[in-house]
Amino acid sequence: MTEQSLWSVFVQAALVNNFVLAYFLGICPFMGVSTKTATAVRMGGAVMFVMLVASICAFAIHRILIAVGAPFLELISFIAVIASTVQLVEMFIKKMSPTLFRQLGIFLPLITTNCAILGLALFQTNKGYDFAQAIFYALGAGAGFTLALVLMAGIREKLELADMPDPARGTAIALMVAGILSMAFMGFAGLGG
Amino acid sequence: MSTDEFIKGLWRENPVFVQVLGMCPVLAVTNSAINGLAMGLATTFVMLMSNTIVSTLRNFIPKQVRIATYILIIATFVTIVDYAIAAISLDLHKALGAFIALIVVNCLILGRAEAFASRNTVSDSILDALGMGAGFTLALLCLGGVREILGSGSLFNVTLFPEGFEPWIVMILPGGGFFTLAAWLLVINWFKVRKAAAEEVTQ
């Protein structure tokens, strides 16, 4: 797997094995923030940045822990690094754009518990990617997450106006839409392989 | 009173069907009933241990760093569970894959630590963890059961249907996870709407 080209790593992570729709990672923000397209784009940007930093750190941590001979500390170190990165992003956004800070609300600190980011760190370690591949993997995963989020937000903006039976309103219909999106993304199978 | 802490997690405040928390493992590992059961038990164990420890230490953990502390406590137990499952059954460990490690970021566990264990006694916290864990496991079984029956025509690896049954492949693929959960939510919401309507009539 290690001789995969950078482009194929990117396409695989963004489309074929989309983090949200194929691996079910990061479902909470996917359901929570995907009601307005503009917010969804910015949330995607924040997640992508955290992913990139987390991926670089995870690569370094993995090497160090292997060298020290303490692989069982991996999970704890990963989560600590992710938590501090999210803190950093939170302070940055609060300073740069208070409006965006309010829009993202509770979901900003919750990026820490976004499984997509820890999942990224774990998957890249399992797959044994080298440094450049890890960076492209993180970029692809971030792009895929943003894509799924924005698509979903676009559909949900229309859904607001749709006529449907009462029990289906809210989460149930959103999950059904996600299911259909997920099936659509299966059409990318084999791409970039 | 104490049994109430247990029951509420199982039904009234069911973590999956009512609170819609911890969705990632719910959708990802439920392509068969046995995977769902294992995941539910692992999560319950982690939640039980983290609730106990958080509740014991609730007067010693400084407010500012509480979330980081909770996550470290949770990560410790998840590492233990990860190694334990690998020792018990390597096949199961392979099937669940990275999702065992991802129990760390299950919002349900952190949510219970923050919302319940940090302000209640140890015995109440243990009951709460057991109830929530049971509710979570039940929900995973419901999803895993439906997906396995329709997607592979079996339940707990026991074939249910005769030769001619054509499995619905989509149910064990990612899309099926979303559909099954949506269907369960629909059924539960439908009951709620009906109950509310019935109460209105009697009043």
Strand content of chain B: under 5%
What pattern of helices and strands is seen along the backbone of chain B? HHHHHHHEEHH
Coarse morphology of chain B: flat
State the secondary-structure class of chain B.
mainly alpha
Number of helices of chain A: 8
The total tally of domains of chain A equals: 1
Draw up the topology in text.
The complex is a heterodimer of chains A (193) and B (203).
Chain A: H1 6-16, H2 27-32, H3 37-68, H4 74-96, H5 98-104, H6 115-127, H7 131-159, H8 171-185
Chain B: H1 2-10, H2 23-28, H3 33-56, H4 66-88, H5 90-96, H6 107-115, H7 122-152, E1 154-155, E2 158-159, H8 169-172, H9 174-202
Antiparallel strand pairs in B: 1-2
Description:
The complex is a heterodimer of chains A (193) and B (203). Chain A is an all-alpha fold. Chain A has one domain. Helices cover 70% and strands 0% of the residues of chain A. Chain A is globular. With 203 residues, chain B is an all-alpha fold. Chain B has one domain. Helix content of chain B is 70%, strand content 2%. Chain B has 9 helices and 2 strands. Chain B has helices at 2-10, 23-28, 33-56, 66-88, 90-96, 107-115, 122-152, 169-172, 174-202; strands at 154-155, 158-159. In chain B, strands 1-2 form a two-stranded antiparallel ribbon. In chain B, a hairpin with a 2-residue loop joins β1 and β2 (158-159). In chain B, α1 (2-10) runs parallel beside α7, α3 (33-56) crosses α4 and α4 (66-88) crosses α5 (90-96). The longest helix of chain B has 31 residues, at 122-152.
